[in-house]
Structures are given as C-alpha cells and as structure tokens.
Amino acid sequence: MSKLSISHSExxxxxxxxxxxxxxxxxxxxxxxxxxxxxxKYDRDxxxxxxxxxxxxxxxxxxxxxxxxxTTAGQAASIExxxxxxxxKAMKQLSVAVVDGVARGGGDEFVMACDLAYATxxxxxxxxxxxxxxxxxxxxxxxxxxxxxxxKALQALLLGNDFTAQQAxxxxxxxxxxxxxEMDEFLAQVLGVIAQLEIRNILMYKEIIAASIIxxxxxxxxxxxxxxxxAKENKxxxxxDAFIKHGGQxxxxxxxxxxxxxDTAAELAKSFNG
Amino acid sequence: MSKLSISHSExxxxxxxxxxxxxxxxxxxxxxxxxxxxxxKYDRDxxxxxxxxxxxxxxxxxxxxxxxxxTTAGQAASIExxxxxxxxKAMKQLSVAVVDGVARGGGDEFVMACDLAYATxxxxxxxxxxxxxxxxxxxxxxxxxxxxxxxKALQALLLGNDFTAQQAxxxxxxxxxxxxxEMDEFLAQVLGVIAQLEIRNILMYKEIIAASIIxxxxxxxxxxxxxxxxAKENKxxxxxDAFIKHGGQxxxxxxxxxxxxxDTAAELAKSFNG
Amino acid sequence: MSKLSISHSExxxxxxxxxxxxxxxxxxxxxxxxxxxxxxKYDRDxxxxxxxxxxxxxxxxxxxxxxxxxTTAGQAASIExxxxxxxxKAMKQLSVAVVDGVARGGGDEFVMACDLAYATxxxxxxxxxxxxxxxxxxxxxxxxxxxxxxxKALQALLLGNDFTAQQAxxxxxxxxxxxxxEMDEFLAQVLGVIAQLEIRNILMYKEIIAASIIxxxxxxxxxxxxxxxxAKENKxxxxxDAFIKHGGQxxxxxxxxxxxxxDTAAELAKSFNG
Lengths: 274, 274, 274
What we know:
The structure is a homotrimer. By secondary structure, chain A is of the alpha/beta class. Chain A has helices spanning 27-39, 72-89, 106-113, 140-159, 165-170, 180-195, 199-214, 216-231, 234-245, 252-273, and strands spanning 4-9, 12-17, 48-53, 58-60, 94-99, 102-104, 116-119, 124-126, 176-177. Chain A folds into two domains: 4-194, 2-enoyl-CoA Hydratase, Chain A, domain 1 (Alpha-Beta Complex); 199-273, no CATH class. In chain A, helix 1 packs parallel to helix 2 (72-89), helix 2 (72-89) packs parallel to helix 3 (106-113) and helix 9 packs across helix 10 (252-273). Chains A, B, C: Belongs to the enoyl-CoA hydratase/isomerase family.
C-alpha cells in the first residue's frame, strides 16, 4: 500500500494518507482504503482507527474529478467511492478523523463517515458539488440533512460554502474543534481512555445508538437487554466491588469520580497480578 | 414515604429527594418514586411535578451498584429502575427536574426522563457506565443519541465524562442553565405561567410533540384536528373577544403582547365574577 | 392582488406583504398567497421566492382571530390557512422569508414553512396560541418538536414566549440571524449564488433532504442515483474540464476555490459565446 502509511500502537491504528500532489480521492486511494477497512473485519487487536493526512493543505481534497463522467470506468469508480463511505460507516472499530486541512466534497463525506472527527483552525469543510452540476455522492447531503436540519442543510448544499472547524462543530459535521497546538495532547487523553475499553463495548454503543436514532423504543429495549446481560458478568462484579471499596457511593464521587476510577483500576491490576 | 417529601401548592407538587448518605437510587427510592408517579394518574389537581434533591452534593448519584448483578433480586431491581424511567416519561403532568448537584448514570437518566430540566453551576451530568462494564440502563444512550446526534453521543458514552449545565444545555441533556442565584425567581416565573394552563393543554402538546418526532405528517394532522376542535369552544371565543378588546390585532401586540394578555385575564376574571 | 406586491428580477420573485393595519393573516391574504404559490407550479422562470413585509412592526402578526371559531366559515378559513402552510412547503422554488418584525403564531409558522429564513434584530418569533385555548394550527408545534427537540419545544409552546433572531437561529426556527444593516448585501450575495443554479438543482436537493430525514438509507440511495445520472451529462464534463484547466485538483483549490469557480464560469461563458 503506497498511499496509506499505517502504524499500530496499543490498539490504535494510525492511517496517514498521502496521495500527491493534492490528496485527491483517486481510484487507487479508494481501493487501498477499502482493502484496509475490510481487513479490519477480522482484526481482534485494533480498537481505534485514526485517519490523518500528510498533506500540508488538504485532509482530502475531494473525489477525483476524472471519474465523474458517464464512462463505465467512471461510474464504477464513483460507486466504489460510495462503497468506501458505507464501509467506513460499518467498521466495528472506532473510526476517528483528525482534520488539519481542507475537506471538501468526498473529503467532507469521508470525515462524516467516521464515528468521531476533530479538526483544527486549518480545517475547512464544504459540499460544493452543485456548482459542478452534480449532487453529493457519498452521503454528504444525507448527513447534512440529518445533522443540521433541513434548512441549514439546504443553504449549505446550494451555496457550497466553506465552514471552519468551530462552525462545523456547531453544525454537527465534526465532533469537536481542537486547536492544533492542543491536538496531540487531546488525542492522547481521549483515545487513551477509549483504548482501554474492550472493542465489544464500542460496538455495543454503536449498535444502541443506531437503533435509537431509528426508533426510540427499540433502542431502549436493546439497551436494557445489554444492561441485564452485562450486569451478570464476573468482570462487572469485580469492578463494582473495587469501586465501592475506594469510595464509590460516597461523597467522594461528587468531586473525584476520576480518582475512584484510578484507584479501582489499580486495585483490579493488583488482584489480577497477585 | 420516607425518602421523598412532597408538598403541594397551586397545582404544583414539589418532590424533595433525600436518600442518605449520597442520594443513590436504591430499590427503596425506586419503589417510592414509582408509587408516587403512578398515584398521579388519577390526580386531577396536580399539573406540575418538580423534582429536587435535599443533598448538598448530589441530585441523584446513580443507580445503586448493589443491584447491578446477576441475582434475581438485582435483575428485578434493575428492571424496576428502568420502569421508573418509563413511568416518569409517561406522566400526564409536566415533570421538571431542578438540578443543583451531580447527576450521573441513573441520575442523568432521571433528569432526561423529565419533560423539562433546569440546572445550576453546581450540576454535573454524565453516563460513565461503560467503565463499570455495563451500558446505560435507563435510556441514557438512547437519549444521548436522539438529543446530541450519533457522534457526540458516542464520544460522551465512551468517555463517560462530566458535562456542566451550560454544556448540557447545548447538548440538549437539559432545557436550560440557570444560575443558582436566579433559580427560585426563574422557577416562580416559568411554573407560574404553566400552572395557569389546564392540564389537558400540557397533555395535548406532549401528544403532538411525540407524534411529530416520529412522523411529521402524522403530527401535523393531529395538531390540525386539535386546533379545529378547540376553536369551537366557548372559552376560546371569550378569550379572543377580550384579547381583541384590549388591543389584539393592533400594533400594541408588537411590543406589548404580555400587557394584552394581562388585561385579557383581568377582563375574563371580571366577567366570571360579575 | 392587493395585499401582495410582486416584483421579478433574474429568477427571483420578491413578494412584499401589506395587509393593514397590522399584517394579520386574514382570509383574503391567505387566498392571495395560495393563488400565487399555486401559480408557481408551472412557472419556469422563477427559481427563488422571497417573502418580505411592508409593515414597520410586523412580518405577519398571526392568523386572524376572527376565523378561530366553530362557524363553518371560520373552520374553512382555518383549513385554508393550514393548506397555505403545506402549499408553501411543497413549492418547487426556493422559498425565503426575510423577517424584520414580529412573527407570532401563524406568522412564525409561515416563516418555518419557507426553505430558508433570515431575520434581523427587529424580529420576534413565538407560538403563544395556548394562552388563547388553542394549539398551533399551521405546524408550529410540529416544527418546534422537530427543530429544537422535545424538551425545548414543550417549554416554548407552554410559555409562548418571544425569541430573538439569535435565539431563533440557535433553535433552528430560522436559518440565520443577519443584522438589518447587512441584510441587503447578504441577500444579494446568497441569492445571487443560488439564482445561478438551475431550478432542478434546488428541487433535487430538497428531495434528497426530505428523503434523508425520514430514512438515512433511502436518502443515500436516492443521492447516489442522482449522482450517477448527473455525472453522465455533457454539462458536467464541460464544467469539470474548465475547472481543472484553471487549477482544480491543485493546491490552488485549498485557499482559492472561489477564484477557480470564477475562472471556470468565465471560460464556459467564452466557449458558449465563441
């Protein structure tokens, strides 16, 4: 794989995208991303996948304009691009886009296909397709509609204007704006917490959330079923016992629940090693 | 009932929760809340139920960890807790949580089960269950998904981090942040307006809103049906006549519609007494 | 038509509403709006319809209180009002409300029926119907529920309080707050961009958005179908060729995509004239 450099560390795969000269989403890149994402299906070690760009200006510019045409090859490549979006959305791992440059069109759609997205002051997000006589092709309009409501979505799609990271956060295009100077520390903290979870926990919450968005009652039923099953596990009892031993269910919780969790983890590590 | 002190005044029941030492949601408290909420079904005088805490630090800490296990009693208590959430959601009265302390896990779910929620600078909201090997069990994940969207919900559920009242307002966990120093006056004003409505009005709008969330067209149809029925009532005509007499449909409305409503109420009280 | 003055310019119809003394939504006005909106069905020149008010205080005060009653005429007029709302929502043109005054009840519902809404510091939005013993009758409660969520909607409908333009933007009642001093320039810029699109583009995005709100997967399928069809058009190829010629898919895009679009348009105009 030449356009993706992938490194692994403590359950986190970091995928750096490099497709010169302008990080356009070409067929080659689509094929590499699809191959990588599909390979994760049977990966038991990777919990989190972080997508970054090595380009100084672009996260991902957009879908290669050379495939947007009526040729058999063009139509097939466009469909592969669309599949890439649905493949990313279907990942069992937590997918995270870290955006420090421009993400328009398919680049914006790539970002929204990820579970979480963090972006800096160098980021820009847009769906300007309509000015090239086409609609969005990777769920851009779908996601805008569902994330910002009919009216703001329609305005954004007809204008095709750029949004800053702060605007994108307010409009739910991304999860959070993070200044570039704080991004590394922010990611270390957030991903450090999540990487300690079992991957089935990530999956469970993705599943409950997806069900709840479609049907509130169905989501509630699924959630309760998981709750009752999980309550029965020995692991749950071990954590709860240690948590209570270190101040759970007392006033210590009010101001120092993190401290209780730290002591709980230490207690559990001790029992495990002892 | 020993954990709930309930006072009644002008259609408003104020429920103060006191379950020492840390306002944990124990089986006893669940049973008392369920009994009280179910007793309201045939209550014709109570329009609004306000839930407060007497604890200096906690609104409600969370579900009692001693019932989160595989025992018959534990599973039954967890289900009763879940029923408490659905019972609160199904109340015909307007339910209002006033939060001046920590509300995590089941406490946060209790807050979201209420129709309205106001919180101070002392409040904290979180769903940290995943760090105890369980998902939320009282619709916490369901509500997060529907209120803040997939991405922000997933981040909040995997991190389990606290939110301030201002953050909780922005994420639709609560209705509004209100500084503690202004809370009493704020509640007197807001609940004073709502307590003057008939309880069927509260119910009608809850019903239209619930229908509209599921299906826009069905909500619109239900709304129009209610509108046409209500337009026929003598009460409607009496209010409209007094409203017009005092400046309704003139420029006075633009800057002083509240004054017209005050004059209208005085006019109606006079006719009623006269 | 005496209550609407309509001017046409470059694909934009500007409708100025003038119904003295207080821009109440009377049966006459409803009939004029309905006739105009239905006439647009076969209009091939008008892409955008802008609704403004000529009244110094009111955008639209609310539905005429004289039709809110149990008479046959009153009920028929109320239903016509409701149809006006659904007719506006069903327009193929882009509908835009420009609000520089009070819009309560039916006025607020008129604003929310439009695709886009911009409002100044003189605007006020409210659904105070419940204080006249009726619910909203033009999808006010439906729209509040879907735009601001159950809790904030219920509070707003039971209180009936005014919202400023900034608050209305945050609650998705309108698209954007624009200071009055900047409104003309803002509209010229925004509508200037949109008026250059074909009307089928506006329709296509309205359709994809409507489908996506109801069902994410159905929206995605529809979007992809449109994308593949549009990719085949000669117009698409001509724009893409000119776009690439002027720096598309290079680093120029990062900071100057607008410049590329300007050069692209000039190139296309040249070929067309040449």
